[in-house]
Amino acid sequence: MDSDFDRGIYYGCIIKGDLLGAIKYVKGFSEQSVLYNRFMEIFEREKYTVYEADDEINKILVIYQQYYRDVFYLQIEREEAEDRLRLRLLDFFGNADKSIELSDIEQKQAVEYFEKKGFHFLGGRTSGYYGPYIWRTTEIKTYEVELPDGIQKYAVKLLDGFIAKSWTDYLSFGEIGTGGWTDQDGMINCIKSAYDFNSEEFRVSLLKHEAQHARDLLRNKDMPLEELEYRAKLVELIYTEKRNLFRQFLREADGSDLQNGHSSAAAKILAGYVGKLNLSREELENLANREVQAVAKELFEEAAVF
User: Fold this and answer.
1) What gap in Å lies between CA 299 and CA 236, rounded to an integer?
2) Partner of 56 at 20 to 30 A CA spacing, among 93, 190, 289, 306?
């Protein structure tokens, strides 16, 4: 592999939903021709992925793959792409009433449909874009989690047997994606296959990140997404010892998409460090971890709880 190919830059494009940027970057490296051709097969020639599920489920998953192509590859306006998704789902479920909202289709018809098939279905947006999580089994375990303002027990749902894990997983061909989330009841959901349960990634980037979400949502269920992600990412930086997570966040720092909470939170973190240290973005990339942790603690203490 050419040492000039930086997987961090590639992943940064995917996380921001910049599929065209990712494809353009990959195309510049001859050793990435297989990856480039895979993008072309799916997004240019529409040879969609077939999942390990029956034909009817695959028909629904093609509908979501068409949405990914519309919004990320063709760059159709988000509202129009969502309406196309809505109408395709209405046709699949045989609804004569074309006024039904997309959220209602997912929360009612899709959930019931997949339950009958032996699956769990979670729809809605992840960082601004639609894309379902579909899995078979759920196991509940309890963990003690240390956060900046104390230790508390949290119940964690361990989810397994996935056939779909939303849009970042799809765009990256399974290389990156959401490892978990916090639901409206404050329960932490964990994609079991995404983690080594003894790793810092699980202990910090899943448990602490999502536990901070749960704690903040308990205080204010209407806390803005950017603020939720900002506070949780700062918690990750406070406790991270073994990874250069800060550099990853800097590469996510594109606040132009206000519906992408991770991206705009990373941009807010960048601005906070620049303000505290009076360093350029390039200089911050080489910041020692102890300095990263110290500034993260300051920023977290200053972060308002709405």
Assistant:
1) 12
2) 190
Say what angle helices 7-15 and 245-252 make with each other, to 10 degrees: 50
Q: What would the pLDDT profile of 198-225 be if each residue is shown by its tens digit?
A: 999 999 999 999 999 989 988 888 888 8
In three-state secondary structure terms, 166 is: helix
Q: Single out the residue of 31, 43, 50, 105 nearest to residue 68, CA to CA.
A: 43
User: DSSP string spanning 46-86?
Assistant: ------SS-HHHHHHHHHHHHHHIIIIIS---HHHHHHHHH
Rounded distance between C-alpha atoms, residue 187 and residue 292, angstroms: 29
pLDDT digits (tens, 9 = 90+) for 258-301: 556 778 899 999 999 999 999 988 899 989 999 999 999 999 99
CA–CA separation, 106 vs 101, rounded Å? 9
- For residue 66, count CB atoms less than 10 angstroms from its CB and return exposed for 0-12, middle for 13-18, buried for 19 or more: middle
Give me the helices (H) in 97-175, please: 102-104, 111-116, 166-171
Tokens of 147: 């956060």
Burial 275-287 (b: 16+ CB within 10 A, else e): eeeeeeeeebeeb
Single out the residue of 278, 277, 283 nearest to residue 295, CA to CA: 277
- Alpha carbons 119 and 294: distance in angstroms, whole number: 44
